[in-house]
């Protein structure tokens, strides 16, 4: 489907409210308009890519001489601008003759906006119409007229976008993050109706957080917009979660999701930080979900509720598999054998759980109380395991110089073991 034309832009209600008068460029009304911008920078033509309709209140033209005004119009035409719309009646009492004359000379459509309407209203209406027309013509994407799914897919796939387009498409999907809101990407795996319901319930638990969500093959993808105070009614069940958006979202899904559903939460980004940050939190959530589905959890699971994790909880797993699991497989295997070899030799001859015990102990600050509780064993049994580990490895597990290597090795063991099981069972692996 062809792009929206300048003639069609002028027919929009918001534009008609300005009582536009066409001063020049009658023969160019059917040229396509790629985007609508407002700017008062009169040396900014070089920043245009072509196809833009430029709105200005004319303030910068009031004190400019005739030559400067003519040069401004010529530069816009040279950059391929679709047209220039100048507000008259405030900064400019009327359209300057030399601006109109130069526009006629170079064939640039020139509009006089005779009634004041906020430019933000004009750009939002016009760009939303442009985006809608563009989406309706995308036959290669499988999402059809589902603007929400199309936007989430483009963000999660790292498609080349721009901020005005993302904002317009988000508004088209009725997603309006409030100023100061924090966005958190979420990827949910499970039966489609349960995954979608979990997102909706979690948003309610969070006090009605805005949600942009859609179902895809393999997962439901969502962006949750949390107000500046991250918690909400029902959230904040853990210390600090009211100040931590990621923890608040995890707590909400613990309360909202059914058993058998796996939830991965990305990091929190400022809504106003730009579309690249929106993309990053969605991609982090998807990578975390992939790892959650292929790598055994570091800690024992009770199996009574959903599995809820986050990209930061899996930060070490993500770093160890950066570039793909296959590319790192041999390196990880060498790390595991070099660091933990004696433990595997012992476990081959003596049924035990030394490697997992070591990882749980390290992940929880070497706290005997916490480790014993998570492993459902007594503290005396834990001490016996730790003594066996230290004896076999010839080191002290709480030596600060060794913590990084030991934790990386135990994590690498889970990754390698999980990838083998995933390959045997036909599950996905992290790309």
TrEMBL record:
It comes from the Bacteria. Residues 8-130 form the Purine catabolism PurC-like domain. This is PucR family transcriptional regulator. Residues 354-409 form the PucR C-terminal helix-turn-helix domain. Gene3D superfamilies: PucR C-terminal helix-turn-helix domain. Pfam families: HTH_30, PucR.
């Amino acid at each position: 489907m062809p792009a929206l034309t300048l003639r069609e832009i002028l027919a929009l209600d918001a534009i008609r409210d300005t009582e536009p008068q066409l001063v020049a460029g009658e023969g160019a009304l059917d040229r396509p308009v790629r985007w609508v911008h407002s700017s008062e920078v009169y040396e900014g033509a070089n920043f245009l890519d072509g196809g833009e309709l430029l709105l200005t209140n004319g303030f910068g033209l009031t004190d400019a001489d005739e030559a400067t005004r003519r040069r401004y119009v010529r530069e816009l035409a040279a950059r391929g601008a679709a047209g220039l719309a100048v507000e008259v009646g405030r900064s400019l009492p009327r359209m300057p003759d030399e601006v109109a004359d130069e526009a006629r000379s170079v064939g640039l459509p020139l509009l006089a906006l005779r009634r004041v309407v906020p430019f933000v209203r004009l750009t939002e209406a016009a760009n939303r119409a442009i985006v809608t027309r563009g989406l309706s013509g995308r036959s290669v994407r499988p999402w059809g007229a589902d603007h929400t799914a199309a936007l989430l897919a483009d963000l999660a796939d790292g498609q080349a976008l721009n901020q005005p387009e993302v904002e317009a498409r988000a508004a088209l999907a009725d997603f309006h993050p409030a100023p100061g809101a924090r966005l958190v990407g979420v990827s949910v795996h499970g039966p489609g109706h349960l995954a979608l319901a979990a997102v909706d319930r979690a948003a309610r638990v969070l006090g009605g957080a805005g949600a942009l969500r859609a179902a895809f093959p393999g997962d439901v993808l969502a962006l949750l917009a949390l107000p500046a105070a991250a918690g909400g009614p029902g959230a904040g069940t853990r210390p600090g979660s009211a100040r931590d958006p990621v923890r608040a979202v995890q707590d909400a899904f613990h309360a909202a999701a059914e058993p058998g559903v796996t939830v991965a939460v990305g990091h929190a980004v400022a809504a106003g930080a730009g579309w690249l940050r929106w993309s990053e939190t969605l991609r982090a959530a998807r990578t975390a979900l992939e790892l959650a589905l292929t790598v055994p959890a570091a800690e024992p699971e009770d199996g009574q509720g959903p599995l809820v994790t986050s990209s930061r909880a899996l930060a070490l797993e993500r770093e160890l598999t950066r570039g793909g699991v296959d590319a790192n497989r041999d390196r990880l295997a060498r790390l595991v054998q070099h660091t933990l070899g004696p433990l595997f030799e012992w476990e081959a001859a003596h049924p035990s759980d030394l490697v997992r015990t070591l990882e749980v102990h390290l992940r929880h600050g070497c706290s005997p109380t916490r480790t014993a509780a998570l492993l459902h064993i007594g503290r005396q049994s834990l001490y016996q395991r730790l003594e066996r580990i230290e004896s076999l490895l010839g080191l002290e597990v709480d030596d600060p110089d060794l913590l990084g290597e030991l934790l990386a090795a135990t994590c690498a063991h889970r990754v390698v073991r999980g990838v083998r099981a995933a390959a045997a069972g036909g599950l996905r692996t992290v790309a």
